[in-house]
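fold-stage: in
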Amino acid sequence: MKASIQLLEGSSFAGISGSGHSVTLDVAPEAGGRNQGIRPMEMILLGLGGCTAIDVLQMLRKGRSNVTDLRVEVNGERANEVPRVFETIHVHFTVRGEGLKAAQVERAIALSANKYCSATTMLGQVVEITHDFEIVSD
């Protein structure tokens, strides 16, 4: 797996994935940026959220759950001192569908968190990561 980062202008960069997709990265104006893209630490949260969302959706679909929507909100609390690493991360799932069973959703989230999601496994070695969920019926 590869990625490259290329300066665009000011403090903005293009992040290009090995699969050919790109994203603009920047820093906040108070840090010298122009707010033209995602902050690098936000990318970490997006990566973790995307990784676990894909796992959970695939497991629920494999279990024949009728999922019509899945949303994941990831909230990271950072240290006040440099380096401003994440100290805690909370992942909240909102799963929408018909006849969804809490036990199936809970199991899919646990399997993602403890076995399948590489981002959660890696970050969980240095950050406390918690999860919760809600089910919304169609």
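fold-stage: in (second)
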Amino acid sequence: MILVDSSVWIDYFNGEKTNKTDWLDSALGNKPIIIGDLVLTEVLQGFQNDNDFRVAKKLLLSFPFMEMGGQELAVKSAMNYRFLRKNGITVRKTIDVMIGTFCIHYQLSLLHDDRDFDPMKRFLKLKTVDI
């Protein structure tokens, strides 16, 4: 299963042509993609046009859905953040640590275009879709 981070979905919906958005476009309907509540919120909150919001929401809700929070993952996320800090790495956004920890916990691959996930791959064994 693959979780697509908002960094890729936002580029995809904005029509940005990158290796990651091309991969996503070809994967739709062909690869096991899931959506999580944190990513869903990050993507949908950025739409200004109501019709674009409805179209994106319909597409995103067509994927299997998982809740990404909860007490256990909140504590694991804090532990992962602290571990990275002790290794001299400060992740810019707490939500990225939560998304990375979620993927690690459920052994999901992450498709992303955000440098905050790189140290999680290196130090925490986050699996990513390499393109």
